[in-house]
Structure prediction request, 376 residues.
Amino acid sequence: MATLSLQSVTRKFGAVAAVHDLTLDVADGEFVCLLGPSGCGKSTALRLVGGFEEPDGGDILIDGASTVSVPPNRRATGMVFQSHALWSHMTVFGNIAFGLKLRKLPAHTIRRKVADVLTLLSLEGLERRYPRQLSGGQQQRVALARSLVLEPKILLLDEPFSALDAHLRVRLREELKAIQRRLRQTTVFVTHDQEEALTLADRIAVMNQGAIEQIGTPGGVYERPETLFVAGFIGTMNVMPASIDGEGLNAGPFHLALGERRPDLPAAGRLDLGARPEDIEIVAPDEADAPGLVEQVIDLGPVRQVLVACDGGRRLKAQVGRQAPVTLGQGVGLRLQRGLIYSDGARPVEIEPHEMASVLPFRRFAGRRRVDEARH
Prediction:
């Protein structure tokens, strides 16, 4: 396939930089997801690679050769848009074969290539149908086939599954990943859906305000988000203002006596403690003074997420197994298993149980009566 390199790429619309000094390298056969909220510049970055936007600065290289001056129809890229963009007056065969006909390939070659991609995407028998006669999933497969049949070096996908229902999205992304692995197709996929990115990507590039905040493997980005923005955008993260004094770490209901003063712990600046719900353990009241009451229990299938109201009005999310005996209004204790300390929203420092000399006693939750009265 091919490698892709974006080198300090910038694209401005008036005074606004939709993409700012963006640098990204995609390896041969790699599947990279650009993930971020609406307006973060991820779709603009994809259009720059495809040649549908021109950069105001920087360079875009495919296999080491600059493509900035190459028009979209001559670039070694294939683009699949959010809208299927199929020609309604053409059959499935006509839509897929259109680009091959523009290349003036022999008719028998076109038929063979179209037949191959129809088989690859499980579209056999549909070649004479029109787009209006297809389901949403079938239309999206045809749009993908139209790009793959041209054998692009780089496949670009701009939120192709966003208009589909949840069940169909899951099925199609599984199929896409299987096809990508089989072809070893270098792929850049744009999405705002974190589950989609975690499922599909070899690496995820989290974008914010036109720049990449963090890039890494799905597991790496989830386990160690480098900024509070990434921490809040990937999965669920409890974030609590924190401070460190002579007695240890104070954050929300947690008062942790650290085993030793670590030089990598920040000594100044705004501090925050971040903890995933699965890194906060719920313990029985006889094991620790209950710092709060269970306010909500959300069934997520194999696990349940528990919202606990703590002193001072803070609410924290913890995660328990499906069979855990947790009920609404129950007094519980919380125990921190792992956390990240952020300084001014970045540069996380990890703390784990073996580094905590002890957990200082929690104060009894003062709001028990108020919550009980609210329930009744």
The first helix runs from residue 42 to 50.
